[in-house]
Amino acid sequence: MAALILSIAVPTPIPGGFDYLPPENYSEHDIAALTPGIRVSVSFGPRILIGILLAVKQTSDYPQDKLKPALAIIDQKPVFSPDIFSLCKWAADYYHHSIGNVLQHALPALLRDGLPATYKSQRAWQLTTHGKGLAENALSNARSQHTLLKLLREHKAVSRQDLTSAKINLTTAKALVDKGLAEEIEVISEPILGASQEPASPLTLNSEQATALKALLVNSDSYQSFLLEGVTGSGKTEVYLQFISHILNQGKQALVLVPEIGLTPQTQQRFAERFNQPVLVLHSGLNERQRLDAWLSATNGKAAIVIGTRSALFTPFKNLGVIIIDEEHDISLKQQDGFRFSARDAAIIRARNNNIPIVLGSATPSLESLHNAAMGRSTKLVLTQRAGDSQLPQFKIVDIKNQPLQAGISQQCMHQLQQTLSKGEQALVFLNRRGFAPSLLCHKCGWLAECNRCDARMTLHLSQRKLHCHHCDTMRPLPRTCPTCNDSQLITKGEGTEQIEQSLHRAFSQHRVIRIDSDTTTGKDGLSKLLEPVHAGQPCIMVGTQMLAKGHHFSKLALVVVVNADGGFFSADFRGPEKTAQLLMQVAGRAGREDKKGLVMLQTHYPDNPQLGNLLANGYQHFAQDLVAERQLLNLPPFGYMAMIRAEGTQPKQLDELLLEVKKVANCGAHITGPLPAPMSRRAGRFRAQLIVQSSERKVLHYALKLSEEWLANKKRIGHIRWSIDVDPQEMG
Ligand code: ADP
Ligand code: ZN
Ligand code: ZN
Hints:
- The chain contains 21 helices and 32 strands.
- The chain is of the alpha/beta class.
């Protein structure tokens, strides 16, 4: 009889599992009992890799004598729960990313490296029988040994950490071991998960919130998808909290996904304060050990709530009862490199497979989610009013055509900023461009500071005296004279946050001007520190990028100035208007949070822009409906389905040749456009080209992608070309 075959997912771009023979010295009985989802080490080409067992099979398509034995079985129990395993299989198929790479992505790094799936173990000591029999006053003339003996008598084991806190040296422990009184052991140290001792009480819901919660509570133990569309400050978070509380009362756990965790310390705090059960936050500051510990605490059911960004979707739970996706429209829920999955879309699949409810919340839902609600695939719940006493802000378009500007800001806005400060209130000036100026040029000959590695200009950062390419991170010192004509008249064009900060600082020198962008918020707690005076309620002006648009609650913020309100409406990307409208509404939503009536001033050179007009006159809902109708006419997502096949390399001609071949291979009814150069055709020294694959049928699109994936992954001698497939792309570049 032929031996059993192991089908193993190995981290490589080639789709599907690889066949191996069982490791030597395993009986057929042992092998037949292996569970899929365990880790197995295998040799793969010249390397030794850790793969995941997909299945134990009777036969292989390859002759047995061509198969190699696997090297070792690492786990007794699978590191993948059945639900995560099937989610990964779905994602590999749907996103056309190899199952080996998807499974890798889903594991904490320490498990990827082969470490055991246990909490950290550390050295510890316990008494030997001999030691236990010793008299109480033994060793009283060797003081530290005596102290340690006493400690060992009181506790079953004393860990390395306990030694340190008791100020006892390692040599003391060693001395006891040498005397045969103590022995060294390994103990697992389980992290202590804190929980609020006196949880904050829930707020009394207003009638819209109560209606939404009631709808969530019907059938809360089976799959249902909800879209909670609530204007900024309408109390969506309060609805999540009360729904989660209900789920926890049933002994289940909750997963909350947010776009960028560092930006919303307040949200984390609200969750932690509300429950007397542990809330784990998976933020970027955790080390790999802490990540694995969190993974374990979710798996064994000790963590009641896990809050994290997109990759937290793959956290296994003992008994998951609900998934919440906050700010579901946010583009950062979609991974933009490697395994390009959408945490929102994959979460819906997970909820459906697990038969649990999922809530997508946003003030500005994506057109995809609005369309799903319109098609009856999810239930829409709306909150039209702000919670408590606060009101939605008022909008005002400021025509800046032919107006004198002070670092990009009109007199009218300067005046309003002055008024706001003198009333003791706060203002926010929004510009989605950091640095001092987006370009530097020579007034004499027209030389422009461009990046050598990208088709892009370099941004001037004045305080660092550097030119910085925001696309590839190249930095150059600021030239004193023009590199072409040697003239010293170098001038800047356009404004960035740094310039606005300086100008406002001069104009309002008696007040604080706080710049908030990725240059000023580096380091741990960088953002929280900068925001301290803001939360303390001092009159001030914040100048910042989209970092300020998300989730913050500034109770004294009365005025928002948008420096350039129309830029994004003219973008070449078909999602431009949707993303711009979302950003504007989110920034605007920071104003007038509590008793302050907010004002939002939108500066524009195109005051008659019909899209801006529509958004302001009719609101986001109506605006989004119009966009949906437009997408339907053009057969664009969420109506037609789309994917991009991208290639990058050093020779543009090779990219085109490769993509032309892919186009031929994938020719099965999907509409394929290209090869086209990417919108930025050269980045970080590499050229980029792409194919756009479209179809009105998912199946057809996927078939074309499957053919492309197989062909590309198996193609030998592809040179230095890197390729990727991006299903449901969020960015066209
Ligand atoms: P969103 O998540 O929709 O932006 P939040 O849940 O953060 O809104 O609520 C905005 C503010 O309103 C918060 O300060 C919150 O404490 C308050 N709030 C929410 N619901 C209520 C309520 N029912 N009564 C009073 N205040 C509320
Ligand atoms: Zn010059
Ligand atoms: Zn560059």
